[in-house]
Amino acid sequence: MRPQSIIVFLVLYAHHVRGYDDKPTIDFGRLPDDTSPEWYALNLVPDFNATEPSFAGRVDISILVKTTTSEITLNSKDLMLHEIRITDDDTNGDVRVDSWKYVEDLERVKVKVVGHILAKRKYKIHIDYSGYLNDDASNIFHTSYDAYQRVKKWIAANKQFKTTRARSAFPCYDEPHQRFLSGYTKSNDESKWFIRLSYTTNKEKNFDTKSAPTVWLNPSVNETVIPIDDDVEWYIFNIQSTGFYRVNYTEENWLSLIKQLNDSFEEIHVLNRAQLIDDSFNLAKAGLLNYKIPMSFTDYLQKENDIIPWFTAMNSLNFVLNRMRRFRNALVDVEAFVSKLAYTAFEMINKLIAEQKSPQYPTNIGWNTLSTWACKLDNYIMYQSTTVPEYYRRWKNGEEIPSDIKDAAFCVGVRHSQVSESFDKLLHLYNTTKTYSERASVINALPCADIQTLLTFLTLIMEEKFPIEPSDYEDFFNAMSSTTNGIIAMNYFITNFTDLVNNVKDGKNIATTIFSILFSKITTIDEINHIMTTIYESKIPCEYSKTLIPVFQSEVIDNQKWYDNGGPEAIWEYINPLSKTVPLNPSEQNTTPQSTSEDDSNASSRLHNYAIIVQILALSVSVKLFVNII
């Protein structure tokens, strides 16, 4: 008997306690906690024709006052504020602004009011401001792309509103909200909101966001009951993925949705196909769903002809592939499985391009992204394809190639050509181009090189000859973490931690960026032990090491919980059913330098550190975040 109603339980979290993707951040100072944002309304107008390209902006910020105060502090960087107005939501009256003052070293602006704004009241801040467009991507920047018939179009963009990036686009509380379901980390926030749920069933298949039935979740109640017919086979929430929430279903409903995709995937809207993949993998990542569900969604991808679900699958499988590096016997099967899917995606996108006389921009972007994915996997399909290597050969010989396929072409060039020559040519482009998209293509391609080449390149940091601009550090090291070679190279390089922090200009910033990225990417026991030893035995200022240790411990705990939750076994069993009775075999691959000898004090210190890591791995802090539809 099928259920006659859907019971919805909802717990959502949002608090200024985490950085991008719900990962702990290394914190060197936060905004005062007397006010907090509720929402933003932002309007940006670029001016490409000005002598110095610029933009005008207006932002409305709804804030809640927690403590009566006469001052509001916001983050702001490289922006010129022209007018600030504040209104009281209750009275709709203006609050007189006395003055505002920039605190440049902290990238803040302090707004002083006449009198006070009152606790437990809501206000709106209206700010008119402006800024300059640049071409180094450190702020709102201008760049170009080739549109129809290679007509150059200019756009203004921001790379991503990651931690501390939004303040360059508009005055704000630039300490991003916690993101839901990216790990097991605890949050003490119990905030709830009204949430509009849209849904449909297999009987209606109504994926129109305007006419699909909806229901509001009231934060004052813990459950909402939605009646459905007895003969409903499946239901799906969040039509076209317009809501910022994830959905978990009963296993029966998950399996019915999987069957629908395998039978006739086009009857579910493409955005919901992508949503099902994304939600299921993230729920499994958080320990709220067996991995057999998201892995089963990959079956239908053999038929998928749209790039959007493929993008989602690519990102999800990259996480799985990296985590499974810990088990050398399972990794072979996982790599083969992902490579086969990459081959399917590559064939699909090539077919789309062949069918379109003038491929649309999204199709070209898809071709570039999926080709780069296959290249970074070192997939044999890159050897079979003459298109991508041919584009690189043409560029190398001085010909112009389309900007939307340069990532893939450059990656192939770095991996399969004379590496040093390719590196030099790409770095010359990085240092001379005025187009951000070309700089980004170079950054994304460099990690396709072998480990030794990447290590040699990273040692330029110690000589203060590193050619990557500080504004691109985060993007570069994130790109490094997208390949196994890049992760191993960074793990080797961080052996220089003490010298890097104490002796290299901007070394602390570089080390902080590397660690904040590497902590979530290391997976093998060797890698974890090496990072642990590096931090605990380094001779760096105590206050700096104290900021790293809690973040590292948190990541190790989350990392180990993923392995203890049965995910690796479920993934391997799905890919290779014969592995059900075979134990996972931890990798003994050396991914860090090993000294040939050590004195007694070092040995004792290392044993102490091992004891600490064992203690961390033994912790059992089990926190589950639920957005369940039962």
Key terms:
single chain, 630 residues, alpha+beta, Immunoglobulin-like, 5-stranded antiparallel β-sheet, globular, disordered C terminus
Write structural notes for this entry.
38% of the residues are buried. This protein has a 5-stranded antiparallel beta sheet, with no helix packed on it. A 3-stranded antiparallel beta sheet has the order 4-8-7, with no helix packed on it. The protein has a 3-stranded antiparallel beta sheet with strand order 13-12-15, with no helix packed on it. The longest helix has 28 residues, at 328-355. It is built from 20 helices and 15 strands. α4 runs antiparallel to α5 and α17 (525-537) packs antiparallel against α18. The model is unreliable at 9-28 and 588-630 (pLDDT under 50). By secondary structure, it is an alpha+beta fold. The protein is globular and about 70 Å long. Among the domains are: 5-13 and 184-296, no CATH class; 37-153, Immunoglobulin-like (Sandwich).
Element layout with pairings:
Layout: E1 5-9, E2 35-47, E3 54-65, E4 69-75, E5 80-88, E6 94-95, E7 97-103, E8 108-117, E9 122-132, E10 141-146, E11 152-157, E12 195-201, E13 214-217, E14 223-227, E15 235-237, H1 251-264, H2 270-285, H3 292-297, H4 307-323, H5 328-355, H6 361-376, H7 381-384, H8 387-396, H9 406-416, H10 419-432, H11 436-445, H12 451-458, H13 473-480, H14 484-493, H15 497-503, H16 507-518, H17 525-537, H18 542-564, H19 567-575, H20 600-618
Antiparallel strand pairs: 1-14, 2-3, 3-9, 4-8, 5-6, 5-9, 7-8, 10-11, 12-13, 12-15
Helix pairs in contact: 2-4, 4-5, 4-6, 5-6, 6-9, 8-9, 9-10, 9-11, 10-11, 11-13, 12-14, 13-16, 15-16, 17-18, 17-20, 18-20
